[in-house]
Design brief:
By secondary structure, the chain is of the alpha/beta class. It has eight helices and seven strands, in the order H-E-H-E-H-E-H-E-H-H-E-E-H-E-H. Strand 1, helix 2 and strand 2 form a beta-alpha-beta unit.
């Protein structure tokens, strides 16, 4: 997210999302876990409608909504979350002193309990790691393959159509790969993703899952090296660039 400038912002709407998910579900047997994340999903005004729609899809077995607990849950959203298929995952940012004044974690948890909504608190101090800069490293193929196999990203990313631009819904190997397609263009990463509206979707998805590396994997630091823990939710003060840190001063 920190690589997107103000003129590169991505926006979508409920109609695009529902249409894209409908098309996806037509071509697959099931989705074991559908995660809704951001940024912060509660900034999306149509979130109650989205969660209600997702919970009614029989091919979606379980849904997780991830929130940073800075925005209270309205009654309309709470009602939409009362499905046994849904769990709310709260990222616990309380270890960052700068955020304590805006966190509403206790009030949100109380409302989730009152509405009998399944939820969990993710201890962010245990999961936030320094991922390093995102830029093309020009590794040999074997090292790109090694990076992918060491990553173990648990889920793929569905990036829906942009309501302001002529764009396609795509499935990428991870959120970083999705963002790179938006930042650098689909042509740069052709083969890394599946178009949701492809007439050969089933063949494309089999090809996609059979790959043992992706072009985007060359943009991440070495995943086989242990990343150091960092304080959660620290924001960059300026938009970052897709280049080595030393290059920004040339």
């Amino acid at each position: 997210m920190q690589y997107f400038s103000s003129n590169q912002q991505f926006t979508t709407n409920i109609d695009n999302i529902k249409s894209n998910v409908d098309k996806l579900l037509q071509n697959i047997d099931s989705i074991s876990l559908f995660t809704v994340l951001g940024g912060e999903p509660l900034l999306f005004k149509e979130l109650p409608e989205l969660m209600g729609y997702l919970s009614k899809q029989s091919k979606i077995k379980f849904i997780e909504l991830i929130t940073n607990a800075t925005i209270p849950f309205g009654d309309k959203l709470l009602v939409a979350l009362r499905s046994p298929k849904i769990r709310v995952a709260i990222s616990d940012y309380s270890s960052n002193p700068a955020l304590k004044s805006i966190l509403k974690q206790q009030a949100i948890m109380k409302s989730l309990v009152n509405f009998d909504i399944n939820h969990i608190v993710l201890k962010s101090a245990d999961v936030w790691r320094e991922i390093g800069g995102i830029y093309k490293r020009n590794r040999p193929t074997e090292e790109i393959r090694r990076n992918y196999l060491a990553c173990k990203m648990p889920c793929v990313s569905l990036l829906c159509q942009d309501k302001e631009k002529d764009s396609e819904a795509i499935i990428s190997i991870c959120p970083i790969a999705s963002a790179l397609v938006k930042l650098k263009g689909a042509k740069e990463f052709e083969g890394d993703f599946v178009r949701a509206y492809s007439p050969n979707f089933k063949n494309d998805i089999l090809r996609f899952y059979a790959q043992d590396f992706y072009k985007a994997c060359d943009y991440c630091p070495n995943k086989w090296e242990e990343a150091k823990p960092i304080s959660p939710a620290v924001q960059t003060k300026k938009t970052l660039e897709l280049m080595p840190p030393e290059s920004t001063f040339l």
